[in-house]
Q: What sequence folds into this?
């Protein structure tokens, strides 16, 4: 039995561990293993969680991710289902994907979130799915919207986004963390609220966010309808609460919020 463990926060492992059995529930496919071996020679990769070579996410980190619990909290009186707590391994994977373009971790990271979106829609047949839009700065830097990726994996390909009226200073999550953190060690150092958020009181965060999202252009789609709102990372919850407010103003009923990860409230 290997003693290989994912270091806290995903710091690179000091030694190459012995082979680890495929996690329960995963079927070993010889053709896939052979392809991974060939690609490892041509395009060397390391595990985004622990630095183990030849795996985008090694079997041990994959098992650790699967064992992590989800998070449920209330935001503006609406149930929020997050696939994971935003800390440790999850935080590292989100940052590797969003800041470094590690698309090879998207599957393991977003699979559970896609399941939550499908479950929300099954519980509210006919509900409309709306995306919380990324900040303009974050979208320019990355060139993609992580929530779109999640929804595509859930089979929701044309979910409209709420409209961002201004650049909310209270916007929380990965975009604000990016500027102050570089390198594998700093990305994996644990959950932190962005400096801009920490310097504000709860009331100031709310005041800086209210009125920054709008569903006015979606009244025909959400008016009188159940709505599921999806975002990537929820920290203070003020942006998600603003999304709920915007939908209600447009006449919709938000019945569930879903996110990849949430900071413990």
A:
């Amino acid at each position: 039995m290997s003693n290989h463990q994912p270091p806290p926060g995903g710091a690179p492992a000091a030694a190459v561990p012995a082979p680890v059995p495929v996690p329960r529930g995963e079927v070993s496919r010889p053709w896939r293993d052979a392809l991974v071996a060939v690609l490892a020679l041509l395009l060397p990769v390391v595990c985004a969680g622990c630095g183990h070579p030849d795996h985008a996410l090694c079997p041990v980190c994959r098992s650790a991710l699967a064992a992590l619990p989800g998070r449920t909290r209330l935001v503006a009186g609406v149930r929020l289902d997050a696939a994971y707590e935003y800390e440790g391994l999850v935080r590292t994977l989100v940052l590797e994907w969003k800041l470094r373009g590690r698309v090879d971790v998207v599957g393991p990271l977003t699979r559970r979130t896609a399941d939550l979106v499908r479950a929300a829609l099954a519980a509210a047949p006919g509900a409309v799915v709306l995306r919380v839009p990324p900040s303009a700065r974050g979208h320019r830097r990355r060139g993609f919207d992580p929530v779109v990726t999640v929804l595509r994996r859930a089979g929701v390909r044309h979910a409209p986004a709420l409209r961002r009226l201004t650049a909310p200073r209270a916007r929380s999550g990965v975009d604000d963390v990016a500027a102050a953190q570089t390198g594998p060690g700093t990305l994996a150092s644990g959950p932190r609220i962005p400096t801009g958020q920490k310097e504000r009181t709860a009331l100031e965060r709310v005041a800086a966010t209210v009125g920054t999202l709008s569903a006015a252009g979606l009244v025909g789609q959400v008016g009188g309808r159940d709505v599921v709102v999806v975002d990537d990372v929820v920290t203070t919850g003020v942006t998600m609460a603003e999304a709920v407010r915007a939908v209600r103003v447009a006449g919709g009923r938000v019945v569930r919020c879903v996110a990849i990860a949430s900071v413990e409230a």
